[in-house]
Design goal:
Blueprint: H1 2-17, H2 19-38, E1 40-45, E2 48-51, H3 58-70, H4 78-95, H5 103-116, H6 119-140, H7 148-228, H8 233-258, H9 280-289, E3 294-299, E4 307-309, H10 321-341, E5 348-355, E6 358-365, H11 381-391, E7 395-400, E8 406-413
Parallel strand pairs: 3-5
Antiparallel strand pairs: 1-2, 3-4, 5-6, 6-8, 7-8
Amino acid sequence: MTTLDSGFPRGRQWLRAHPLAFDAALALGALICMITASFADPHGSPNGPTFGDRTPDIGSVGLMVIGAAALILRRRDPLAVLAFTGAVTLVELIVDDRPAPVVMSAVIAVYTVAARTDRPTTWRVGLITMAVLTGASMLFGPTPWYAQENLGVFAWTGMAAAAGDAVRSRRAFVDAIRERAERAERTREEEARRRVAEERLRIARDLHDVVAHHIALVNVQAGVAAHVMDKRPDQAKEALGHVRAASRSALDELRATVGLLRQSGDPEAPTEPAPGLTVLDELLTTFRNAGLPVELACAGDDTAPLSHRPGGAPTALRLPAAVDLAAYRIIQEALTNVRKHAGPGAKAEVSVIRVGRTVEITVLDNGVPQPTPSTDTGGHGLLGMRERVTALGGTLTAAPRYGGGFRVQAILPATARTGEDA
């Protein structure tokens, strides 16, 4: 059984790869059947057909050979092969008083036309073939027009056309299913690639925000330490402590962010939660330690009062994880830009306000007037913030303030994109 199960698929594949060999074998089989049937006489005795009572003449054998040989080219030009075998069958029906079954080659040709062309062509060609061959058999045959042999010509040509049309329809159906499966597979692969690209972009944003923030703080504190090292060693020691804390925090966040690239089975997968507004107080403390005064104002909804205070995180604001992370990163990046570009003596104000189904994050500073940074200067802070806000369906505005300073405002949806309220 194992040999048969493996042999049939291999034979089918070989025949599909060599269609001419299959057609030659089919032509040989049709020739053998026609010659064998030509020795049978359907009216040999009152009891039924007899075999061996008649012998085909040389002309009939030649027509059978020619009709069978034409079937070898049935795939290349089905209509021409049908016309040729139909003509050979007509000659046999008209010339011979006891015609040989040359019509078998025309029946195979009708099936080929129906299987390899469209349905309108099958209808036209099939009806013409049935009408011509059946009419010739009735008019020139040795039997009355209502004999079974004449009706057999009509039935065999009609069944061949119907069988070929069914095979063509099934082949088209299978091809359509295969095409839909391939299209679905391509769509699934494209969706997977798109999600991977989005995840890489998100990780790149996080890396940029983390590195830019902490490197800026390290740079400031290192400069302070170098400046006061000789005269005020205590203050220099404190600044170096801030440098160490900032660098350690940067390493922890980098480890957590890069850990997202690990596979599920890798050891030491990150378990730390993503930063959000619940740790905003710690973020603002790092900036205050770096010499940037920051005030925070927050409100849980549109009716809660605003209070400017030097510390305290908006714990009442419960946001979706993606919105919470984006709000934290926007504040982090905006304050980093203030620290780097606003100049000495600058102050910053941060406000986080829940208004209906949105949350507004605003970062103001009173630094020296400056133009909006362009994307061709090598900085990616504003670009990263804008991409984060756009991905969540919000809006971002960043522009100089009238009279000096800079203003960054982001409006984010306070509900997840699935419609689930945080």
